[in-house]
Amino acid sequence: MTVEVLATPSAGGVGHVQVTRHGDGAPRHALSDVVIDEQPVALVYNGLSHVVMMATPLDLEDLGVGFSLSEGLLHSVAELRGIEVQHGPLGVSVQLEVSPRAFARFKDTRRQLAGRTGCGLCGVESLQAFHDALPRPAPGQPHRVTVDTAAIGRAFRALPDLQVLQAQTGGCHAAAWSTPAGQLSLVREDVGRHNALDKLIGALARAGQDPAHGLAVVSSRASYEMVSKCLRAGIPGLAAISAPTTLAVRIAQQGGLSLYGFCRNGSAVQYA
Questions:
Q1: DSSP for 200-222, written as a single string
Q2: Are residues 159 and 265 in the same domain?
Q3: Residue of 268, 234, 244, 266 whose CA lies nearest to 66
């Protein structure tokens, strides 16, 4: 089957499209379909743009807060003074007003990025700089989360029913917050797995919920970025439906994060 698409974006996280379906010698016929919305989203701090990412334009306040926390631009949500989402003809901007101390860190980050070309690790110019930028274990004994396989299974069985956009489009990831008993209380979706996790982190922070007593459940693999974001946000556990990477495992072990992969069909593999 092939699909020819003429899509128009929607403010509801999906695009309504007209497609032509082909396949198995059947006559071609036109019908309406739904695809996940993807738009450029700029994060702007005190009037200075920091990054433009492709994201699903829902829960963007959560995205802005979560990204800021998981990337170390904010040390806590208390450093945020205000946030506003602005829709324009070229895309969406998330305007964040942050404290003078947080803005000073932001400007220092911008100076480190100046003059460098884009790459897979933007702003990192050497292998040593990359390793220096990895999250380090927090001082003292980190909070541990104990989760059994049955609880992980309950969380992942409950997740599909809460993935509203995925059910409509089949084209997005989810990140959910689970208690150690496997009960889900928050779910965020996005076309990007990192964005979905940042939205979850932001939603937890904005709700004043302590991230130290639960774990993140994600419908993706567990890369080093996902583990790093959890460590910086104070989340002690990450369970992924797919595989981790070697660096994700090493960072999780060093940081004291409980890392589970291949969480499906009632089983899970614990890597850290």
A1: HHHHHHHTT--TTSSEEEESS-B
A2: yes
A3: 234
Task: Give the integer Cα–Cα distance in Å for 159 and 165.
Answer: 12
The reply to whether 205 falls in a domain is: yes
Residue 10 one-letter amino acid:
S
Q: At what angle do helices 193-206 and 224-233 cross, to 10 degrees?
A: 10
CATH code where residue 220 lies: 3.40.140.10
In this structure, the answer to whether residues 155 and 94 fall within a common structural domain is no
Pair (168, 238) in one structural domain: yes
Contact 219, 239 (CB under 8 A): no
Q: Which residues are catalytic?
A: 119
Q: What is the pLDDT of residues 13-52, one digit of tens each?
A: 888 888 888 877 777 778 888 899 999 999 999 999 999 9
Residue type, 117: T
Asked whether residue 144 is domain-assigned, the answer is: no
Strands 39-45 and 48-55, sheet pairing: antiparallel
Backbone angles phi, psi at 33, to 5 degrees: -140, 170
Q: Number of structural domains, the chain?
A: 3
**Residue 28 shares a structural domain with residue 96:** no
- pLDDT tens digits for range 111-169: 554 433 334 455 555 676 666 667 765 555 456 777 889 999 999 999 999 999 999 99
Helical pair 193-206 and 60-70, crossing angle rounded to 10 deg: 90
Of 166, 178, 194, residue with least CA distance to 34: 166
How far is the C-alpha of 202 from the C-alpha of 138, rounded, in Å?
20
